[in-house]
Amino acid sequence: MLTLYQLKALRSLKNKIVLVTGGSSGIGESVAYEAAKRGAIVVVVARNLRKLNYVAKKCLILSGRPAFSFAADLTNPDQVDSVLAQITREVGSVDILVNAAGFGDMSPLIDESKKRMQKMVQLNLLALMYLSRQASRQMISQGYGAIVNIGSIAGKIPTPNSSVYSATKAGVISFSNILRMEVADYGIQVLTVNPGPVETKFFDKADPSGNYLSHLPKRVVLDSTTIAKRIWGSIGYPVREINIPWYFNIAILGYHIAPGLGDWAIKKFFDYK
């Protein structure tokens, strides 16, 4: 199992190479900035190179250390392999991987297109698996590392009109639980982060109508900076999973104890379509 000594080696981000996917916006962008503030060499990957370059420049200013941006379509396994190889050549071996790339669609299943369903599975789940596999190999050879996988409360508590998205996030959680056991003896921490609703551009695509966020109390909606701080405050400590806000832990437990009652309550209060 992962020892306290191995965990302590991860606590300082100074000069550690931190790779953040989905680093051009949302949670990924905030995670990159927070890592830079702690002295990391930040590498951001997404499709939009213009936005990535902006994030990398800001990381350089925050950290006083080099920062890098690489454009890649992570739904393409070949591009995943090539961008990781490029990062290894030009920057070095990754010490911490944060899989933050992903998107959602809050539509009933009968309205989902095959193309959109396929893309959600490819980006939210398969790309995360490919990246984790390659990063694990590197980290095993160097004897330490950390992998942070962004799941979602939607992967723990189902809500109507999010079937494909929720399925991918449930997959992220299960995958992370197994990966954690497989790599613990090699000094690698695997942290799953399951946020509730976050005020980012995620909902611009997931729910263009704005119905979902408009029905939620303001105190429930998270800020991405809060999530980033929780992540970096948990790396190097015996934390396996973060469900945020904290009170979702109670809701998760309640749903698993009484799923029938949970389905009724969720359908009544969270079915906004």
UniProtKB/TrEMBL annotation:
GO terms for molecular function: oxidoreductase activity. CDD domains: SDR_c. The keyword Oxidoreductase applies. One of its GO terms (cellular component) is membrane. Keywords: Oxidoreductase. InterPro entries: NAD(P)-bd_dom_sf (IPR036291), Sc_DH/Rdtase_CS (IPR020904), SDR_fam (IPR002347). PROSITE patterns: ADH_SHORT. The keyword Isomerase does not apply. Coiled coil: none annotated. Belongs to the short-chain dehydrogenases/reductases (SDR) family. This is Short-chain dehydrogenase reductase SDR.
